[in-house]
TrEMBL record:
CDD domains: HATPase_UhpB-NarQ-NarX-like. It comes from Amycolatopsis alkalitolerans. It comes from the Bacteria. One of its GO terms (molecular function) is kinase activity. One of its GO terms (biological process) is phosphorelay signal transduction system. This is ATP-binding protein. Keywords: Kinase, Transferase, Two-component regulatory system. The lineage of its organism: Bacteria, Bacillati, Actinomycetota, Actinomycetes, Pseudonocardiales.
Length: 122
């Protein structure tokens, strides 16, 4: 398969920083992706892209934090939280991507308490 369609975690981190800044959302982001396991980087790039898109478009957040671990990615915002309507197409697609690599996508939210998105692989 060609590398043309592959996502880059480093590029998505740069894009996330720019998108959050442009939206006026205070950010706490890792400086590098060095600690992220190489086998997780591509799928985490998609998770980061979708997660930040959701923060900017839907959350009403004023603050967003992104944290990397060797086998995890977590995005937390202080927005209004999910409305309980379930996953949209983007989160559903991420769950499928994570499942395909024996990973897991978890969400946590409560009205007025923000949103947490966590992706992890074994």
């Amino acid at each position: 398969m060609s590398d043309y369609r592959k996502a880059s975690l480093a590029a998505e981190l740069t894009n996330a920083r720019a998108a959050l800044r442009a939206a006026g959302i205070e950010t706490e982001l890792p400086r590098t992706i060095d600690e992220v396991d190489a086998r997780a980087r591509e799928v985490f790039a998609y998770v980061l892209r979708e997660g930040i898109t959701n923060v900017v478009r839907h959350s009403g957040a004023t603050r967003c934090q992104v944290m990397f671990g060797p086998c995890s990615l977590e995005i937390v915002d202080n927005g209004h939280g999910a409305d309980g309507a379930g996953d949209g197409h983007g989160l559903h697609g991420l769950r499928e991507r994570m499942s395909a690599i024996d990973g897991e996508l978890m969400t946590e939210s409560a009205p007025g308490k923000g949103f947490r998105l966590k992706a992890s692989i074994r």
